[in-house]
Design brief:
InterPro entries: Amidohydro-rel (IPR006680), Metal-dep_hydrolase_composite (IPR011059), Metal_Hydrolase (IPR032466), Metallo-dep_Hydrolase (IPR051781), OTAase-like (IPR057744)
Radius of gyration: 22 Å
Protein name: Imidazolonepropionase
Distance between the termini: 33 Å
Strand content: 15-25%
Mean pLDDT: 93
Number of helices: 13
Pfam family, one: Amidohydro_1
Structural class: alpha/beta
Helix content: 25-40%
Domain Amidohydrolase-related: 79-413
GO molecular function: hydrolase activity, acting on carbon-nitrogen (but not peptide) bonds
CATH architecture of the largest domain: Alpha-Beta Barrel
CATH superfamily of the largest domain: Metal-dependent hydrolases
Strand order of the largest sheet: 3-2-7-16-17-18
CATH class of the largest domain: Alpha Beta
Number of domains: 2
Largest sheet: 6 strands, mixed
Bound molecules: zinc ion
Low-confidence stretches: 1-19
Length: 415
């Protein structure tokens, strides 16, 4: 028991978390709402009371009376959820029609300032964790560290630094070019020394880089294996950008942790490869599928012509038991502002996912994929108090995710 009068939850509960009658707790939040999705489901918790202490969830109760001394926040009929997790964003890109040109005109300091704005946009939408899969000059790492000191100013960032790519390869302009096995190993080591959370490797070309082709490989199996070995030696997961089938095959063979996009793009369409999807499932590799566009923007013809094929593969991956999460690629163009993720969840439902699976894909499964599953993505004791409240029932209508009524980050209400 704190002599200064600050009782901790452990004191309140005592051993075995049994409430102790009459013990006054100071500094605790007691959040009431109409219902809650706990990150796993399958059903909503009715009339929950979520106790928050020192930035973490202390307890989730089904109703009951708040502990004496706790500050009560009543969210009315809203549904409370874990804050959303976007497994793939780019805070350096501004969501304009020319995001690459835009950053070329900015100094690092100017760009960092834009990224602070992008981070606030995420948080206001209830996106409380983002995995940044490609910055310039380790700016997302800098912003991550800033936000550790000031969590109410943005989501928690898991940063990759500049993506590792071949000379003139996809996103080379972000400064991460590295060639050959030795070059790739050195690039991974350099990122580990800078304190990144994940290694991003471009296994194939990409849509936003002229001179590269999404269906063609950039790195061969040897470079990818070297990247994985070196990253795992440093305790870091590897997220591999792969569109074309050969790139996906190489990524699976190398034992990467997540495959980004995984679109099975060919020169003129989309491939169907149940055998390769089965191999992804067997290997336990998570697919971070690139879904989510705001209304009013038609995808480029190359993408719209392939959309049915992409979605058929997403369905097939789910049916094969692949863990599919949502990585929006926020920032890469006007259809993808930094708060686009709820549209990605809605697209999973349109694609045939049950709403509970779509909600997991942006909460608990995404947390697991991003290696923060022990403290993010669930409403459970010990988890970070990153919370989102929405009007309506997202299990009945996934678009309710956009009707945000409150956001908490590390226990502080920010909206
Ligand atoms: Zn990306």
């Amino acid at each position: 028991m704190a002599a200064a009068g600050r009782a901790r939850l452990a004191d309140y509960h005592g051993v075995g978390r049994k409430p102790v009658d009459g013990v006054v707790v100071v500094g605790m939040l007691a959040i009431r709402s109409g219902a809650a999705f706990d990150g796993v489901g399958p059903a909503l918790v009715e009339r929950p009371l979520v106790l928050v202490d020192e930035g973490r969830i202390a307890e989730v109760r089904a109703g009951g009376v708040p502990p004496p001394g706790a500050e009560v926040i009543d969210l009315g009929g809203a549904t409370l959820l874990p804050g959303l997790i976007d497994a793939h964003v780019h805070l350096v890109f501004d969501g304009s029609a020319d995001p690459v040109g835009a950053i070329e005109r900015l100094s690092d300091e100017e760009l960092l300032d834009r990224m602070r704005t992008a981070a606030r946009t995420c948080l206001a939408a209830g996106i409380t964790t983002v995995r940044d899969l490609g910055d310039r000059a380790y700016l997302a790492v800098r912003l991550r560290d800033e936000l550790v000191a000031e969590p109410a100013a943005g989501p928690e960032i898991l940063a990759a630094g500049p993506p590792v790519t071949t000379s003139q390869g996809h996103c080379w302009f972000l400064g991460g070019a590295a060639d050959g096995v030795d070059g790739v190993r050195a690039a991974v080591r350099a990122r580990a020394e800078r304190g990144v959370d994940v290694i991003k490797v471009m296994a194939t070309g990409g849509e936003m880089t002229p001179g590269t082709r999404s269906h063609e490989v950039q790195y061969g199996p040897d470079e990818l294996r070297a990247a994985v070995e070196e990253a795992h030696r440093h305790g870091l997961p590897v997220a591999v950008h792969a569109h074309g089938v050969a790139g996906i095959e190489n990524a699976v063979a190398a034992g990467v942790d997540t495959i980004e996009h995984c679109s099975f793009m060919t020169v003129d369409g989309v491939d169907s490869r149940p055998d390769l999807i089965a191999a992804i499932a067997r290997a336990g590799i998570v697919v971070s599928t690139t879904l989510g566009v705001v209304p009013g923007f038609a995808p480029p013809p190359r993408i719209s012509a392939r959309l049915d094929g992409f979605l058929a593969n997403v369905r097939q991956m789910r049916d094969a038991g692949v863990t599919v999460v949502c990585g929006s690629d926020a920032g890469i163009g006007p259809p993808k502002p930094h708060d686009v993720l709820p549209y990605g969840a809605a697209m999973l439902v349109e694609c045939g996912f049950p709403p509970v699976a779509a909600l997991r894909a942006v909460t608990s499964s995404a947390a697991w994929a991003c290696r923060v599953g022990e403290r993010k993505g669930r409403l459970a004791p010990g988890f970070d108090a990153d919370l989102l409240a929405v009007d309506g029932d997202p299990l009945a209508d996934i678009t309710a995710l956009r009707a945000v009524t409150a956001v908490f980050r590390a226990g502080s209400r920010v909206r």
